[in-house]
Amino acid sequence: MRNKLFAWMICGPGVAFAEQAPLSAIDWLASPPVAQTSPLANTPPTAEPRPTGAQVPEISVTSLEMVNADSAGLLPPSSTGLPVSIWRNSQTADIIELLNNLPKTSNSAIQSVIYSLLLAEADAPQSTPSAGVFLAARIETLVKLGAVYPAMALLERASPLPASLVPVVFDVSLYDSSLAPSCDQVLGLGASYPDDATRIYCLARKGDWLTASLILQTAQALDSLTPHQAALLHEFLQTDVQDGLITSMPPPAQVTPLEFRLYEAIGAPLSTNMLPRAFANSDLNGDNGWKSQLTAAERLAETGAIGDNQLLGLYTQNVPSASGGIWDRVEVFQKLDRALDAGIAEEIASALDRAWDAFDGTPLRETFANIFADRLLGAPLTGADRILAARIAVLSPQYERAAQNLGGQDQFLQAIAQGDLDNLTPTGTIDRAIQDAFIAPRIPMSIDRLVNQGKLGEVILNALIQFDQGAQGDPQDLLESLSTLRLIGLENTARRAAISVYLGQDR
Q: pTM of whole model > 0.90?
């Protein structure tokens, strides 16, 4: 698990708040230190210096008793640019409600902000009702996005955990079959653990089949298990009362992580395609076929739960032996990859047209742009081909460099990239909203009140939710969300988000 986590931190979503130079990943682990400044809630947006990296997290030794689970994080303030007080003045219930409403967006700039918030080291809200509640909410949000390894790492960082979080640890450990279930923590609680099915499973995994069978019989007598759970456990334990009929029936509408593992253990693994996104992690290990790995990787890449380089590696791992659907995307992706390696302009132009036709308009278009941006901007293309490459690359963190290659073909797009939209004539309500966010920003009174109360985390979460509504066609929400992002110092995020909306329109 640690190796996979390291890969995610190297290749996963970028750290948004530090407003880094173009990076497609959390490359701050391998970058030179750079001084960071926290967002200033009441400072008007101004032109910003372009840092070249971010600081490697320092390692310190701390007594385990001193660790506050709800304040734990993987990203220090020096990397996120967030103050440790980001949540301090908020009510836990208010934050959890906002986390529950966060969009599952494919906008990579917004994704970076979300992951930075969820993984930041910061003081917990003072109103947290009991230990672990706020951390559990962050873990739940990560799992919904499919980011299982960061979730598990965050739980490890927060150790020792309160007993209330042991079920959370156990569930997270089951989403990927390559992880060992966290049974030691479960069994450490003994009979006080709230779920009999989990105790039975863990006892069996530890080799205590007799005790597991006895607890199963008792649990059935006390009706603490559903008939479906009992049947799966009997099959798993291979008792004399196995009921193959129930286990052969379709699984319940909502499969728990334990049920998912039990089906796998009895030789009837469930397809992850119709299950929540987190289960897709189980298809990424080497025990599954290439198509299963590709399908899982695409689902996880849509929410930034895996890094661009991991998707690149899977796309180029083998040669497609079929056509249609995902195989067509793999084929055109590989042809563009080979053409860029060869450096022949005609081959690049032809491959780029086909590849962009396959990825444009899909949730993977920005992932595609992130992967190829640097090579496209350095390719020997001219004319319309050079402009197409620039319009793709402008969706990546290298948007400013890409905008210089537009050749004046789209002045509005170039102006967004530069953050200077004066003296331009928008052609629609969305374009007008984007322009107003940069020349006549408007902040909702409710957001201004949160800013004055020092509730920066709530300000950001509200802006992200409002931006998603704006991206779907509400010009007022788009104007106000972009204005808010700029107000709190996320200028680069606002520009990239605006570019994505602008290019996502039918033109």
A: no
